[in-house]
Amino acid sequence: MNKYRLLLCSMMLISASASMAQGARNIRISEVLTNNTASIQDEFGEREAWIELENISFTTYNIRGMYLTTDRHVLDKEMSVPERIKRMSVIPNGDPRTQIGGRQHLVFFANSTPTKGKLHLSLPVPISEPVWIGFYNGNAVELIDSVTVPALAADQSYARHGNNWSIKKAENVTPGIENFIKTDETKDAKLKREDPHGFGITLLAMGIVFFCLAVLFIFFWFFGLIMAHLDTAKKVVNTQPIKTVTKTVEVTHDIAHATGNLLQDGLKTKGIDKELYIAVISMALKQYQEDVHDVESGIITIKARQSGWNIIK
């Protein structure tokens, strides 16, 4: 039993690790600005080099504990993990902004110090020289993304568009938002650009289908309940002893009609023999008694009664 539990826990741990690794790979470097003279400012009004990360998935992922570095020596696979960490800048814990939502962006300031804030990294970025930037997972071994940024002029940025990179002019720099925005872009083109593999539209379509099926299920379930109640009520009505009542009404109506005719004839003839009235009424009553019977339950109840024959001596 313990072996099965251990195996199950191991499988769950492996699945969770694979899921986390897949989520980490959805985070990538999207834009870099190395020479900041007129771009965004930090909380203290200072302009520093910045690096933008993007979550390309539709789910939220927390990047705390991951690393950014500009030191190519970490590409050496023989380097130990402690030595790697010394050459990297860790993304700190304790800031909700590191929880990057789907299709969202987050900007980190480089050439700074973590004492200024959670988004400030002591990451050395040269101003007017090419620089390699690597983004590592929390184990400091797995390289998630990297880019070699060319030497940039003041306030120019190096931005990703799909799988391609290009230099953007100062007026086109977009820190914290989507890199390329087209005001005349159609909705179909935007959807194709944001969801090139169609996963998002597939999930949306499946959600709509399941919602419609749920609505139909609820509708037909209520409809079935209503029809069942109506059928039960119909059976109850059909089993009620209404034949006797109907027959009584019919006979009473016939007697009243016949009596009315006799009275009219009596007025015209100025009196009819009394025996004739009695005979007609007697015949009507006899017909009523022969055709109408009580509806019996078919159960005979015998009550015990003391008599001289059943006295116990």
Automatic annotation (TrEMBL):
It is found in: Cell membrane. Residues 1-21 form the signal peptide. The chain crosses the membrane at residues 199-226. Keywords: Cell membrane, Membrane, Signal, Transmembrane, Transmembrane helix. One of its GO terms (cellular component) is plasma membrane. It comes from the Bacteria. GO terms for molecular function: sodium ion transmembrane transporter activity. GO terms for biological process: sodium ion export across plasma membrane. Residues 18-151 form the LTD domain. The keyword Transmembrane applies. PROSITE patterns: LTD. The keyword Lipoprotein does not apply. InterPro entries: Lamin_tail_dom (IPR001322), Na_pump_deCOase (IPR005899). This is Oxaloacetate decarboxylase, gamma chain. It comes from Xylanibacter ruminicola. The lineage of its organism: Bacteria, Pseudomonadati, Bacteroidota, Bacteroidia, Bacteroidales.
